[in-house]
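Students often ask why inverse folding is considered easier than folding. One informal answer: many sequences map to the same fold, so there is more than one right answer. In these notes we will look at a single instance of the problem. The structure comes first.
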């Protein structure tokens, strides 16, 4: 919906019946949010935690394919995946600065069915991904306290972790943003110290190792590890409505976060693969703590264990925020009933979205860690293929749309930029296991059924739906 004489404010339509925004008849101005807006530094660290949160979890790449391929993966993958995704997010988030993010993009490109399906894929991939962080936290904690390795203590701790830090999300996005800054600094410090101590022990020839003889490469684990550690750049797009001056702040924050993330992964990886020589099978999630004990001592191992817990908290908070605010954006677009846009009277946070995301997270956190990662990757891949198509089609469909940040390429160059990561997405989906196909298939069927069910509910006027209509400016 573009127009030269566009209105700056969002508009709300309260009607349970119309199927599209264009059919809305009764329009009233939306109430502005009471909460403070996110500024540049907290946004950088929120993006950092949406994607990485530190080098925790990159160790299985070494276990799967050896030091050389792990290093090459984290060197090359940002250029073929992370940077294109960040560029697309910067352009579309500044052109469509609403809480719907990628849901708005698919809706504007291909219509409401695509927007609803995008919302289903991204929401479920998000909450499944959130479930991985309490599990990752437990993987580090059980090295210090074996009682958390299995059984009832592990399950109870997972549930408590999820509930306590879901409440922190409830207290407000600005609080979450500044918490992310503190958590990011504290969790990165031990890796800087560990890498510095390891420098005299580095033997460069170790970087060239393709792995131990007799150890079969696990390509499924290798590519899923790379993908899981370097994706979700677009998740922050659903927070665009909560950011101060998003047209200016978003591109700056995204580019700073890309640089921070790449260094956070590469420096410890170079340092540890070059300085220690251990059995390749030991490079499992949580091995950096063991590596810290080898190069420095128990004190640094404990610090990294604590850093892992703090990083898991940051990852959990950032991605739970995106899941909750995505539901607000979907309610604004009438894909969900108005109640999903409800906000707390005290903190102005989307409490319904937080509660629903928390319940689903608890339900999936007891799955195997690798199955969690692979399921999140598969659903995310489906959403990203639709997102790339939306980006390219919007360039053609809405050439005069005002884009405060514009990827500096013409359409043929953009197609090439999107084809390379699209090929990788298809590969990730092809190598998925049967359980991942089953989980992802069921969630996709649910998304299709949900779209038509909501359409029927509007027709029958069973629920109240909210429509936020944004006129987007032309150049």
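Output (designed amino acids):
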């Amino acid at each position: 919906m573009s127009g030269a004489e566009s209105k700056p404010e969002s508009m709300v339509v309260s009607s349970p019946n119309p199927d599209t925004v264009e059919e809305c008849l009764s329009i009233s101005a939306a109430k502005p949010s009471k909460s403070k807006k996110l500024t540049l530094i907290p946004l950088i660290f929120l993006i950092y935690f949406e994607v990485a949160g530190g080098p925790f979890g990159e160790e299985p790449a070494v276990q799967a394919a050896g030091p050389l391929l792990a290093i090459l993966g984290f060197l090359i993958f940002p250029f073929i995946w992370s940077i294109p995704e960040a560029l697309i997010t910067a352009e579309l988030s500044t052109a469509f600065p609403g809480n719907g993010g990628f849901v708005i993009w698919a809706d504007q490109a291909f219509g409401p069915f695509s927007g609803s399906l995008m919302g289903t894929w991204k929401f479920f991939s998000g909450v499944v991904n959130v479930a991985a962080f309490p599990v990752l936290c437990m993987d580090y904690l059980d090295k210090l306290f074996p009682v958390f390795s299995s059984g009832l203590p592990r399950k109870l701790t997972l549930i408590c972790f999820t509930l306590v830090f879901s409440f922190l999300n409830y207290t407000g996005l600005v609080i979450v943003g500044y918490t992310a800054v503190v958590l990011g600094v504290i969790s990165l410090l031990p890796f800087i110290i560990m890498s510095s101590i390891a420098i005299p022990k580095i033997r460069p020839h170790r970087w060239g190792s393709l792995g131990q003889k007799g150890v079969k490469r696990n390509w499924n684990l290798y590519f899923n590890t790379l993908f899981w550690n370097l994706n979700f750049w677009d998740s922050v797009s659903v927070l665009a409505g909560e950011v101060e001056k998003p047209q200016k702040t978003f591109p700056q924050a995204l580019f700073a976060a890309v640089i921070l993330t790449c260094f956070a992964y590469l420096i410890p990886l170079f340092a540890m693969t070059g300085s220690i020589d251990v059995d390749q099978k030991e490079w499992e999630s949580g091995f950096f703590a063991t590596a810290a004990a080898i190069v420095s001592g128990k004190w640094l191992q404990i610090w990294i264990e604590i850093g892992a817990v703090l990083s898991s908290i940051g990852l959990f908070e950032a991605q739970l925020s995106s899941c909750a605010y995505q539901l607000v954006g979907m309610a604004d677009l009438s894909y969900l009933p108005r109640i999903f846009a409800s906000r707390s009277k005290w903190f102005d946070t989307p409490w319904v979205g937080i509660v629903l995301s928390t319940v689903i997270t608890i339900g999936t956190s007891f799955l195997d860690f690798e199955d969690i990662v692979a399921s999140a990757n598969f659903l995310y891949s489906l959403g990203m293929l639709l997102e790339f198509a939306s980006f390219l089609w919007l360039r053609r469909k809405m050439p005069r749309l005002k884009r405060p940040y514009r990827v500096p390429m013409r359409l043929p160059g953009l197609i090439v930029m999107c084809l390379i990561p699209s090929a990788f997405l298809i590969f990730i989906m092809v190598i998925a296991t049967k359980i991942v196909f089953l989980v992802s298939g069921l969630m996709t069927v649910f998304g299709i059924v949900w779209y038509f069910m909501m359409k029927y509910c509007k027709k029958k006027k069973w629920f109240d739906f909210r429509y936020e209509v944004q006129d987007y400016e032309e150049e």
